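This part of the workshop introduces the protein records we will be handling. A record pairs a protein's sequence with a compact description of its fold. Backbone structure tokens are a discrete shorthand for how the chain folds in space. The question running through the whole workshop is how a given chain folds. The record below serves as our worked example for the rest of this section.
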Amino acid sequence: MTDRPQWVEISGDEVWWDEPRPHEGGRRCVVRSTSAGAVEDVLPKGWNARNRVIEYGGRSWRPHRGRLVFTNWADGRIYVCSPGAEPEPLTPEGPARYGDLVVHGDEVWCVRETGTARDVQRDIVAVPLDGSPLRSVIKYHHFLMNPRISPDGRQIAWIGWDHPDMPWDATELCVAPIEGGPHRVLLGGASTVQAEWRDADALYAVTDPTGWWNIHLVELDGTTRDLTPLPLEFGDATWKLGGVFFALAGEKIVATYGTADERRLGVLDAPGSPMRDIGDGYTAWAPTLSADGTHVVGVAASPYKPYEVVRIDLETGERAVLSPEKPLPPAELLPTPEPVTIDGVHAHLYAPPGAGPSPYVVFVHGGPTGSVAPVLDLEAAYFTSRGIGVAKVNYGGSTGYGRAYRERLRHNWGVVDVKDSETVARWLVESGRAEKVAIRGGSAGGWTSMAALVRSGVFCGAVAHYGISDPEGWAAETHDFESRYLDGLIGPLPETRQRYLDRSPELHAAGASGPALLMHGLEDKVVDPSQSERFAAALERHGHRWAYLTFPGEQHGWRREETIVTVLETELAFYGLVFGFPTPEVPPLALEGNA
């Protein structure tokens, strides 16, 4: 469920960002905070500033001299408009998709994607803002992101990678003459997730040759220097193109950094100086920052505040919340997350009110190369306020704890993630916190939930949102970006096919320790709905109980208000069944299969 502002940018004396609109069909609307403090829509109704580059999307809009340049979800084209006015197209009709937009002069530079499914080509293109024909500039990698033009306008830098690597495995930071010519690889082998020009002769880059995503100074001759040599992460996994983990404010660098347990905001006043924290009070910062000479704007949250757009003075630390305040339930209904580490496994506990053991649900994040932060979570509060505890697990493979922890999952997907989830579940029971434990997750978290249900014997039920049940089938049918992901998570095919068979939840459904609730969007291009259908059929064959709900118009994730309500109510009804308590406030759920 996408419930937070995604991108921010300072534009003159205004701040722009985009926000979700579940009540408007799930569109993302670009808004701005004016110099007078008013927040108003920039994008007219009926338009949706999203795109499907690498299916997960990329930076979808930029302000330019008071106008908005954006990618429109419905047709994938780039448009430009004045605030509230009817947009005009800048790119031709056709199947191309654009993302990771950055404005340079009177052009927008971005990644273009053409082709479909597994036959995809990408290049970096320059799109004139006067409507002139676009031109292709860079085609050196299968995947590209982060197009940046040097201050003198003579060179372009970008980050690229090729199959079978994922961007958190290995990428290349490259530069080439903007008018064409041979490119040079400045960084290779490590994972570089963002780069910005310092001047015409050097760039700053977030890269991890030490095992931690640190900020490095990279000279054009290939010389590098780690400016933040700390066992902390200044970057994260690239699931959307265009993440901004640091921003330049004159000679200063403003950056988010820390671990998945606490991510801070700091200022590097000069190369070699220590980080000076300015984001006190927030424990999580999204990968989007924008800075000018005096302020930085970002999206942050804490255990007591949902994600909000924040502007902070770089010298004084004075802050202002720019996004409208979200209505919250009474404070007594909101749980405070408690970070714990159990036998080396990181987790955040959201306890229900009251004393004594309670039913608990282990929440498994997606990715699996990702993480969850200990922040105010209204979804968790929905369950804790009804007496169900939540334990969010950052299992081995999660980001935020360095490459070594991230690579615990290498060739061990379906093993380490299941074992770590089981470790937390057993600890909850043995410590007297829980009496019964269920498990739930979305996408890769849905995979872990199904795998744990059929293998661990610990969980009394599982909920899988758009999950993977057949890894061999998924590897053959999923989209281009993740089509070789399982090479690192399980092993290359066909050499390691037996691992795929051994770990398939579908093929081992006979061992299910409880019923399953499966839910899937029918327009999902990342995980085909047949993955849920096949697991339901396997449970049926083996005499286990299940329920399967589908949602027309939804993709890989829930965005529509009516879907979000139905999903939460159905999940609560399911927990009532597996934990054994009434749920009269939501519609009843009937399970298929043998009782």
Observations:
- Residues 561-579 form the longest helix (19 residues).
- The chain has a mean pLDDT of 94.
- The first strand starts at residue 8 and ends at 11.
- The two ends are 32 Å apart (CA to CA).
